[in-house]
Amino acid sequence: MNQDFLARAAEEVAPELLGKTLSCETTEGVVTIVITETEAYSGTADPASHAYRGRSARNATMFGPAGHLYVYRSHGIHWCANVVTATDGVAAGVLIRAGRVVAGEDLARERRGERVESTRLAKGPGNVGQALGITGEHNGADLLTGTSIRLSEGESVPTELIQAGPRVGVSKAHDWQHRFYVADDPTVSAYRLSPRVKPVAGD
């Protein structure tokens, strides 16, 4: 994998990240997941993106070159990991929503809880971050040439198994078909409409 692969629109890259591996090494050890679910965010053209209103201290990494990691904290609790895509100066990213732990399962379970099922260790973006040991210190990390966290080639996912649907938990542009996942994979998170979405009259 190279930067050119990632230097495209987020919605083009997102389905092609399925099957790729994401590994994070900390002082505790290494955890690796195979990505099974992603969600694309198109920067200033996307009302649901953190970069919709332009560059800020929080989202600056999204405007950087493709192949870096954009990390943000959700609800003040969970660290969420995004692969920066598009060309330098254009904000875009792919949220890693779920994955299957293929290395370091004991460490992932230690972080997530001893009773958590294997299929749920990295199910949901907050759990991905927790299982991998990602924190705010990883924001801006180089995913292609770095050492602590790497995005690599993994498994080949047949095209017929890749499905698309509306994004989860966002109230703006929630119906955009920018969520991509491996069909029938037990690690994929359940669809949930944001409670902030106002029902349309007549529904």
From TrEMBL:
UniProt keyword list: DNA damage, DNA repair, Glycosidase, Hydrolase
Secretion signal span: none
Any one biological process term the GO annotation gives: base-excision repair
One Gene Ontology term of the molecular function aspect: DNA binding
Pfam families on file: Pur_DNA_glyco
UniProt xrefs under InterPro entries: Formyl_transferase-like_C_sf, MPG, MPG_sf
UniProt EC number: 3.2.2.-
Identification of the protein by name: Putative 3-methyladenine DNA glycosylase
Organism name: Nocardioides panzhihuensis
Family recorded in the similarity comment: Belongs to the DNA glycosylase MPG family.
Record CDD domains: AAG (cd00540)
